[in-house]
UniProtKB/TrEMBL annotation, chain A:
Keywords (A to Z) from UniProt: Cytoplasmic vesicle, Golgi apparatus, Membrane, Protein transport, Transport
A Gene Ontology term for the protein's cellular component: cytosol
Compartments where located: Cytoplasmic vesicle, Clathrin-coated vesicle membrane; Golgi apparatus
Coiled coil: none
Name this polypeptide is given: AP complex subunit sigma
This protein's record includes keyword rRNA processing: no
One MF term in the entry's GO annotations: clathrin adaptor activity
Domain spans labelled AP complex mu/sigma subunit: 1-138
From TrEMBL, chain B:
Residue span(s) of domain GAE: 726-838
Predominant localisation class: membrane
Chain intervals for the UniProt region annotation (Disordered): 621-640, 651-699
Protein name per the record: AP-1 complex subunit gamma
PROSITE patterns: GAE
Gene3D superfamilies documented for this protein: 2.60.40.1230, Leucine-rich Repeat Variant
Gene Ontology cellular-component terms listed: AP-1 adaptor complex; cytosol
Keywords annotated in UniProt: Cytoplasmic vesicle, Golgi apparatus, Membrane, Protein transport, Transport
Listed SMART domains: Alpha_adaptinC2
Biased composition (Polar residues): 623-640, 651-668
Assembly notes: Adaptor protein complex 1 (AP-1) is a heterotetramer composed of two large adaptins (gamma-type subunit APL4 and beta-type subunit APL2), a medium adaptin (mu-type subunit APM1) and a small adaptin (sigma-type subunit APS1). AP-1 interacts with clathrin.
Amino acid sequence: MINYLLIVSRQGKARLSKWYATTTTQAKSRILKEVTQLVLSRKVRMCNVIEYKGRKVIYRRYASLFFVAEIGYTDNELITLEIIHRYVEVLDKYFGNVCELDIIFNFQQAYNLLDELVISGELVDTSKKAVLRMMEGADVTEKDDQLRSALTTGGIL
Amino acid sequence: MPTYYNLKALIKGIRGCKTVADERALIQQESAAIRASFREEDTFQRHNNVAKLLYIHMLGSPAHFGQIECLKLVASPLFTDKRLGYLGIMLLLDENQEVLTLVTNSLKNDMNHSNMYAVGLALCTFANIASEEMSRDLANEIEKLLGSSNTYIRKKAALCALRVIKKVPDIADHFIGKAKNLLTDRNHGVLIAAITLVTEICSLEESYLNEFRSAVPLLVRNLKSLVTTGYSPEHDVSGITDPFLQVKILRLMRILGKGDEQASEAMNDILAQVATNTDGSKNVGNSILYETVLTVLDIEADTGLRVMAINILGKFLSNRDNNIRYVALNTLNKVVTMDTNAVQRHRNTILDCLRDGDISIRRRALELSYALINEQNVRILIRELLAFLEVADDEFKLGLTTQISLAAERFAPNKRWHIDTVLRVLKLAGNFVREEILSAFIRLVAHTPELQAYTASKLYLALRSDISQESLTLAATWILGEYSDILIEGGIVDDDKTTPVRDSELIDLLLSCFDSPYSNYLIRQFLLAALTKISARSTTSQPEQDRIAEVLAKYTTSPELELQQRAVEFASLFTLGETRVGVLEQMPAPELKATVMGVVSERKPVGSTKAMDADLLGDEISNAPSASVGSQPPVNPQSNQDLLAEIFGSSSELATSTSPPAAQPQKSSVDDILGLFGSSSSNSGPVPQTPSALPSYPATPATAVPSTFALPQSATPATPATPSVRKLTEYSAYEKNGLRVTLTPQTSAAKPGIVMILARFQTTGPPVTGISFQAAVPKSQQLQMLPMSNPNVNPGATETQQMRVVAPVGSNVRLRLRIGYTADGQTHQEQVDFAGFPAGLTSGTA
């Protein structure tokens, strides 16, 4: 199980933080600070696993962003890297050549996409296509709704 | 107050801030505005405000006041409001918050929503944050949705079920039937969620586990089809079909196959197939291989498969990808207890990893190397670990020093090596040594009289070159204090040269520790005691004794209470003359602790002992190591009786003792230790006519002394295990046919009535062989003997035998000796009475 997933910029700013294991607010901000520091201090050729307070933290850097996930003791580190990669692929497909700004300005969509991929710390689908299809479906529903409500308030419907 | 109209403008505004302070001010301002707007119940602005609030929240500002607004959004009929509302709930709430109970109703409604995306939102929210109460309330809804015809809803419901059983394990049985059905699902999303669910159910209870064992063939089929089907665009990851699902299946198999022959048997083939066919050139493939290895190692796999698994890990170790090496080291750590030999084969690779640039790798490799140490490789591995200790990160040092010392204790080939190893640890990382390790070291030295001179001189040199290592300073202070006489008599032994040490130099060194910036309270306490001890030794000259008295006087006004008290007490000891010398005698060797030293003394070569007097030494007999018992000829008690009856005329009058012949196997260890001792004691010269300059005490194979004569709870706790050499006199007991036997008695003031007698055998002519030396004492006394170091005496050599007599205080020690030997081809058998010891030997004053 993934306990949390963070996206952190190279400057150490949180761009997304999703907590699957119940964590207090203080613990969250402490982990965010300390893990970010650990991850940022890593050199390029080092392995993608760090140990933080006896927990396994997997991270991977994509351009200016670090994707960080803490997993359970018996979980597979290598497949976690693939899950992170899958998330990045989905973001990339969704935004079309995703960059940090996309995630900053559309953080809700980044969260929504993650919710289609990982629920309760577990992968919920293994098909990129399925995830994107569902995301699109939800987006369409949202737009339809917005349109309908605009028309309703405007008195047209 | 200027507030930003929408989210985008706010984000731009925040990004435009030049300083952190500006940014904080802006966020505070905006946050206040949002709060005000919430208070006004501005429904039109709600969506916008919550979105802005969530962004602010991500930057680390409090956003709890938005919780209720999220609930309101969720209750809205609009999907766009629901989506943001649920997102906000997942970010701002967790299972421990009261407000969450208010969400239950909305979740229930949305789970029955006509739009599948709304159902999906509710399920996702539930699975991420449901509390125990909520899980109970909505378990039925979830169960119903597990049967939905929509895969999007089924897969999410399966993970909701996972949440339910995690929060309320006792209702897991409600989900078993549905979970079984889901395992046959063709949709990969549903299947992976179902397998996750089943894995959790199986870990809850043995009975559930048995229930799902029937699913093994199904899982095998699923895995097989993933491995064998060709390219499938939907689920392909660099040439491998759905690695995520494969890993999940392998993991479930691991749980189902563990401890079940039949299930394991059913998996063997497919596991072998996955292990051989998966392409290990990319991370994806390796993640599957890794999971396969874990499964093979956990289930009751056949040996071929296990070998294959360990070989995969071996291959991982030489992979250039650091991640692969990391997981390999990690996994070998688990394997090492099961199959040490397989891991030993990769020892060099593992040791190389200690020098890796990556701390994660170093940490794993280090743990693994601890586990690899055994009797055979202890020298090599400890050498590597010591080399690593020199360059290790501080965070590793404490663990390293502890592990090295423990390993040295368990596997040391001899005590010299053990002492050398700990000395090195103290020198390299003296500030990272646990107290237990330090005291175990001191105990070891106290129990090894043969090496006290050696250790003292090493520590003297080490302390002279570095006083910044706390534990080194403590150990050196203690040992130099105890054994200063040995050091001063023996000088410093370094590279076969002996440099004399003057008492003033030793005291200068200790005094310099007092004033060093590294000195601390504890060190100063040790120093005071050490100096006081040194002052009481006869090797310390009067001017130096006066100097120590001055130092003590200085500390009698120390503001540090413990120091002041010690100094006052020690100073008053100075006025007590003879009593002072008695009080400040060498410490008796401390009790052997089973946890630490016990292991050692049992494993190391120990001299044979055969304590004869069960009444007195009952404890000792039961504790006496019997390492060489096998080499003793059986001794018939009756024949002993006869013998003694013959010696003394009446067997009932006597307490007797005979000793077994020396145990040959110990010979080599004696040589080892004596060999290195030779030069250090040569100029202490306490014993005339000892050409080979043996220390006067190694009567027995080295380790026999502490183990026999200084056992815990023995009748003679204060018997010094480390008798000092200097004031002993030798008495000739026998000299005929070239064989000369002398006896050296030694007493301890602390324990009157106990006399240690060292018998020495030398030959002035041809070699004397087959010596049997027996002794008896009057009935009122008791005698214990250790075996002879060697029953054959060569010209120039000295063989020894240790005896201990317990006599009433004030009585004279008399011995009747029976000596049998062969010299020059002739066998001799003689009996002598010996009463040449001075009177008063047993009153402890001699």
